[in-house]
Predict the structure of Spermidine/putrescine import ATP-binding protein PotA.
Amino acid sequence: MDRRTGVRCQYVTTAINVRNLRKVYPGQPPVVALADASIQIRDNEFFTLLGPSGCGKTTLLRLIAGFENPTSGSLEMHGQSLIELPPYKRPINTVFQSYALFPHLTVAQNISFGLEMLGKPKAEIAATVDEMMALVKMTEMADRQTSQISGGQQQRVALARALAPKPKVLLLDEPLSALDFKLRKDMQLELKRLQTETGITFIFVTHDQEEALTMSDRIAVMSAGTIRQIGGPRDIYDHPAERFVADFIGDTNFLKADVVSVAGQTAMVRLASGQTIAARTPEGADVAGSVTLAIRPEHAGIEAGSGGLLSGTLGEVVYFGTDTHYHVALPDGTAFVVRQQNRPDRADDLATGDMVSISFAPDVGQVLRD
Ligand SMILES: Nc1ncnc2c1ncn2[C@@H]1O[C@H](COP(=O)(O)OP(=O)(O)OP(=O)(O)O)[C@@H](O)[C@H]1O
C-alpha cells in the first residue's frame, strides 16, 4: 500500500523466492517431505502455509530458516541465495511452538539475550528491549521470571525476543497451538497487529483453516509435500481450484456437471437436473466433458417446492444457533447441504421429508481441476 495515496502498489518485491525446492529425508523408504515446491513470498506480507499434519509445512519453514539443507532447488532472499548461509547469518528469526524461553531469566533478560549474543552495544540493547516490551504489552512484567507468567504472556515474550534483532522475515511454527480458544483468538489479532506495525514479513505455519483465513494476506495450501493453491483468503475460499482445497477449507457440496461451453474463466455447465448455469473455472485449467462443481453451503438458498435449480427431499435439519443446516438428498443420490443464517424474521417451516428446491446465484459454482 502506498501510504501517501492509499493505493495498493502494483509492483511488490519478493522477499523469499522458493523454486523447485525438494527435501528428501533418508530412510527405508526415503521420505519426500517437500516435492519441488515453488513460492514467492512478498515483502511485508503475512503469508501462511496451511495443510494437514505431515504435508511438509515445518520442513519448508526449517529450510527457509537454515535448520535443514534442501535436496535440490533454490532458495533466495531479495535475489541472494540463502542456501550457503548458516541459520545465524540469515536475517530471519523463528518463533517455535514451544516458545523455548529461559525459565530462570526475566522477561527483559529473555528479550535481551539474543541481542547480547549478537554483541550489540548496551544502550542499544536497553532501548530495543523497552521498545519490544511495549510492542507486546509486557512492560509491567519486565522483571518477572518467565516461569511465573501465563502461557499467553510467554507467547508475547517469545514474539518480542524473535522481533528484537529486527529480522527481515519472521517464521512462526504453529505458535498459537498451546493456547486456549479465547486466548488464541486474541493472539490472532495481536499477531496481525504486530506484523502490520513492524512491516516484517511473517511466514506462519498452521493446520487451522480458520486461523489462516482470518490472519493472512495470502495462503499456500499444501498436501503431501506439494503446494496445491496459492491465493488470498477470499480467493482460496470462494474459488478453490481443486477438490482437496475445497474439502480442506470449509464445507463444500460437490456436484457432477457437464461442460457445455467455456469463455475465458467462465464455463456454462449442465447440472444433472438439466438446468444450465455459469461457473468459474480454475486459472490455466482446460475444462471439458464431465466435471465436479463446488458450491459452498451458505451460497445456496432453500424453499419448499420444486422449482429451483435443484430439487430434492429434505433429510436432517440441524439447528446451530447462528444458522441451520438443511441436508437434502438429490434424485441421483447426491447429498447437498444448505446453510441458512437464522433470523427472527425467517420462518422455520421446512420439515424432514418435504420436497425442497435449492437455488444459488449463477456465479457461485466453482469448477474443480481434475
Ligand atoms: N527428520 C526427519 N526424518 C525423516 N522424516 C521426517 C523428518 N522430519 C519430517 N519428516 C517427515 O516429513 C514429512 C513432512 O513433515 P513436516 O514436519 O514438514 O510436516 P508438517 O506439515 O509440518 O506436519 P505437522 O503439522 O504435523 O507439524 C512427514 O511425513 C514427516 O514424517
User: Anything to note?
Assistant: Confidence is low (pLDDT under 50) at residues 1-7. The pocket of adenosine-5'-triphosphate is lined by residues 25, 27, 31, 33, 51, 53-59, 207 (CB under 6 Å). The radius of gyration is 25 Å. The helical segments are 57-65, 107-117, 122-135, 151-163, 181-198, 209-215, 233-238, 243-248.
